[in-house]
Specification:
- This protein has a two-stranded parallel sheet. A two-stranded antiparallel ribbon has the order 2-3. Strands 4-6 form a two-stranded antiparallel sheet.
- By secondary structure, it is mainly alpha-helical.
- The protein starts with 5 loop residues before the first strand and ends in a 5-residue tail after the last strand.
- It is globular and about 70 Å long.
- It has a domain of 332 residues: Hydantoin permease.
- Keywords: Membrane, Transmembrane, Transmembrane helix.
- Belongs to the purine-cytosine permease (2.A.39) family.
- Its main location: membrane.
- It is a multi-pass membrane protein.
Length: 531
Amino acid sequence: MTATIIDQGFTQPAPAAQKPNGHTQSDPETLIKEGYDPRLANKDLAPLKKQTWSWYNIFAFWMSDVHSVGGYVTAGSLFALGIASWQVFIALIVGIVIVQALVNLIAKPSQRAGVPFPVTMRFVFGVRGANIPAIIRGIIAVAWYGVQTFLASESLNIIFLKFIPASQTLANDYSFLGLSALGWISYGILWVAQACVFWTGMDTIRKFTDWAGPLVYAVMFILAIYLVVRAGGLGAIDLNLSNSAPLGFMESIPVMITAIALVVSYFSGPMLNFGDFSRYCGSYKSVKKGNFWGLPVNFVVFSLLTVVCASATVPVFGELITDPIKTVERIDTPFAILLGGLTFVTATVGINIVANFVSPAFDFSHVNPQKISWRTGGMIAAVGSVIITPWNWYSNDQAIHYTLDLLGALIGPLFGILVAGYFIVAKQRIAVDDLFTMDPKGRYWYRNGFNPNAVLTVLLAGIPSICCAVLPSPLNEMGIIDLTALSNFSWFIGAGLGLAIFALLERKRPQIVRLADSESDPNVSDGAAKE
């Protein structure tokens, strides 16, 4: 379906989504209207009746996302790039402000329409084509879910080994599929714990993140104070973590730019599907407030704590330790090991649930709403995370490089397509009811449910992005050319190309229908209107 005119009307409703007894489905939290096709709607994907989250819930979401072992190591590693500490902090601030601006963009369509990320993608890709970004994001989340659970299980191993010495036998003498018996026990405990939190629903997840983030902050402050005191005070700590000679001003600029790119790339996954969470927020203003406190403010404070803790390990333990799990392991006090270990387990579980459990739950449910509920979709992800044996996969650098970098390179194009479709082409107007109809007359049916412009853009923008992410390393190893620095910018390349190509294709051969002023149609979500 191609349209170049301003659309005034509303599509003819498709057959009502019905239960076996013939009645229209209803749910206390979401609204499934007559006309919603059951192949596109269930109680988890339909628009929310009430959006009850406040700015603090968004703030707590980002605390859980930032306060993880991966976030700790990433922030600490930036201080070892060879630039001065003040330059690192400038890069951190610039990078996280860019993330904040991008997250604000991606949050708006879902918050205004009250639907999760894969449903929002229907107005761009088509009601069937939206499964393309949903599956890509879901697979990435499953892979990282397994890795994060494995990393958290290593913290639990430390606690077992410290307080139950006999568990050393399980760690050394018995193994299965590349993981020790103790590793299986720790992994299983965390797997079940995360599944239980997830199974109780989004409200429990919200409550979990509300207290998990502040708890990690409290322990981080305690750990920082402990290490500083052990080191002999702040005067005994060198905050410059770089082992190389200081770079000149001109030499430091490309390194700072690389650090900025690394910050943005680190958040690219949860940034893409942030609509899964912004949909619950009561207003777009609250989303932006939560993003401000949760990203630039929270990230900079966390980074300061990170560099203080990492710097203090040099005088305390005689070597630089950037992994918080190993730092806690070196502490002699049993209570400190218990508190620190459990805290980093909690931190990693927090980011795992919000970033890698909720996302595939919506994504896999989107593929077949009739048979796959949100909870079923999440459990598919959880089971998949075991099947890939992440402990073997994570230890293989080549497997990580060619799998995650390849899939992750597609996050940029998907981000660019959604932003271009919503802000440039659709002018922030979405016909929400049309997101749930398979009627060929529906606005988002396009060609057999697919928007050819969006599919073509994924290919045209995805191929260069994948090449930038995957090829530099082997080309450098073969001695052909050193383009390794280019891989740090694959997200930006993909997002820029995705935005430009999709906007150009929609201008040359329009597919997305431009909606008239939403005042005449209450079912149209108008992001341009004042709250």
